[in-house]
UniProtKB/TrEMBL annotation, chain A:
Keywords associated with the record: Amino-acid transport, Cell membrane, Membrane, Transmembrane, Transmembrane helix, Transport
Chain segments annotated as transmembrane: 12-31, 36-55, 61-81, 93-118, 138-161, 193-215, 221-251, 263-282
Similarity comment text for this entry: Belongs to the binding-protein-dependent transport system permease family. LivHM subfamily.
Mode of membrane association: Multi-pass membrane protein
GO molecular function list: transmembrane transporter activity
Name of the protein in question: Branched-chain amino acid ABC transporter permease
GO cellular component: plasma membrane
Keyword Ribosomal protein: no
GO biological process: amino acid transport
Subcellular location: Cell inner membrane
Pfam families attached to this UniProt entry: BPD_transp_2
UniProt cross-references to InterPro entries, sorted A to Z: ABC_transp_permease, BCAA_transport_permease
Entry keyword annotation includes Transmembrane helix: yes
From TrEMBL, chain B:
Pfam family membership, one: BPD_transp_2
Membrane topology type: Multi-pass membrane protein
Membrane-crossing segments per the record: 24-56, 63-89, 95-117, 124-142, 171-192, 222-244, 256-283, 304-324
GO molecular function: branched-chain amino acid transmembrane transporter activity
Name of the protein in question: Branched-chain amino acid ABC transporter permease
Cellular component, GO annotation: plasma membrane
KW Transmembrane helix (keyword) present: yes
UniProt-annotated location(s): Cell inner membrane
Annotated keywords: Cell membrane, Membrane, Transmembrane, Transmembrane helix
Main location, first listed in the record: membrane
Amino acid sequence: MDWLFFGEISLAGLAMGGLYALIALGFVMIYKATRVINFAIGEIMMFAAYLFLAFAGGMELSPWIAMPLAVLGGSILGGVIEKTMIRPMLGESPISVVMVTIGIASILVGVVEFFWTADPQLLPQFLPREPVFIGPLYLAPKIAYGFLIGAAVLVLYLLYFRFSRGGVALRATASDQAAAYSMGINVRRVFNLAWVFGSLAASLAGILVAATGGLSPQFGIIGLSVLVVVIVGGLDSILGALIAGLFIGWLETVAGAYLGGEYRMPATFVVLAVILVIRPYGLFGTHEIERV
Amino acid sequence: MRIGDAKQTYQADEAIWTSSTQKFWFSLLLLILLVFPFLANAYLLYLGCLVGIAVISTTGLNILTGFTGLISLGQAGFMGVGGYTVAWLSLNTGLPFPVALLLAGLMAAAVGILVGLPSLRVKGLYLAIATLAASVFLHFIFAEWEPVTGGMAGLSLEPAHLFGFTFQSDFRMYFIIVPLAVLMVFAARNVFRTRVGRAFIAIRDRDISAEILGINLLRYKLMSFALSSFYAGVAGGLFAYFYRVVTPESFPLAMSIFYLAAVIVGGMGNLLGGILGAAFMTLVPEILKLLTAALTPFYPNAPVFMSPMLEIIFGALIVGFLIFEPHGLAEIWHRIRRFFSLWPFRN
């Protein structure tokens, strides 16, 4: 076995996993606050990446201006989705809400195809191109810098939720909605906030992932990998999202490198199946699962 | 105004046909279905067959989603199991089609039990995730298990046959598909008049109460899922006989969403809704095609926008019906019917 190759692949996988962790964080945020399983997260990522393409490619803005704009656009999209389509479903059965998110995913795919056609697109190059070496291990620069940006935002994100007023309100709502409400927290605004911030994380990750691998309307399929991440980590666990994100990213890349690209998804879904059998609440999730 | 219709017994209330008017209209419907293939052109016939297949699959999903309150994202995958079973049987054994279709259904049901067993033990949306995983695995198996599934190229099969009679045209397939669809909808209707079907509904309405009433939740949920997979398997088998080729791309995830959309748009927990939804969702793309064709002389670009518009319309229908008309087309239908049965009085 070639350890150098294995090391490089693992490193690339972990870097990819960092981005998964960021998306999963967005997913968990939404789930914790509003108990909605968001099947449209991959499509929100895709939409933000296309916005970036429009700003940086079409309007020829500097990528460093285009990126915040696109992320802002993605966040606003999240907020609008919550206000117009998730809010009316408040109190409905979880099945209906999940299906609304599936419908939203379909709409977003259609909108993207409508404006940018179904053809694959390449994002403008904006990350530095010098190869990165960590010890003897080579790492593709796009992936390395993507990981760095993602990690930086992830840390900011966690700090925000630990220390800011909004973050405290969000955590309070997640742990006990009624108590939060009676303490004067505007629960509705928190719901909206959760969607905005969840979409923010997803949007940023979407741009970074699309910058390394290209973009097409099928991009949203990455949402499935994220779903695996959050189930493995535990739907309501931030720590779980981070660890499972790294692990699933690593596993996917290693399986792709050693077994072939068609094994990427099945490999991670095997982990999902095992987790569903032995620990359905995930590695770090709350044990609130009722056996029936 | 409908009069003289007070029910005196539970039996009368639970009967499939509660009035002679109903019997009359249903006989008329059957007559139309029978005459239709002789009058319709090739295109309408093709659509009729597609609607028939969709009705079977949607009814299956409706049993699961509408009546038991579980959501599956693997309907297309289970149709694939049925389709490949039929294709393989047709190539290797030459069994007559009723046997092949039955085996296709049973095979899909068996796979369904396998998928449902771990995920149905726990409450929540785990079946959705497990079925998603199942459709990834199934797609992988269809694409990679070459000796059996023919890999990416798929399998081409012989036309359906019975006692030496082959069903090679759409016209002949119609006489398999539509009677089977009617039969399977009836079977579903009857399931909901028995303990099993009642148990499904009880589980949907409140699982804890259902358990206290002595319903073994895991068993009945599994039963519902197996039944729904059986329907999917049969529909997939018909799909295979109809197109006479199955490939891994014949059963994409988008197809599962299509059936979910059909159930929602038609009306969850209503068999009539499943039928209306299946027909409606099958016809939407066709209507859009007609519209595009009509618009092309004015906007030469129109065909380019058709497929994105379709995605948008599908999504908007799902979201719109869930928010504004959660009981679906069936509710609209009932409203119209109520109007006539109360006419000339209001309400």
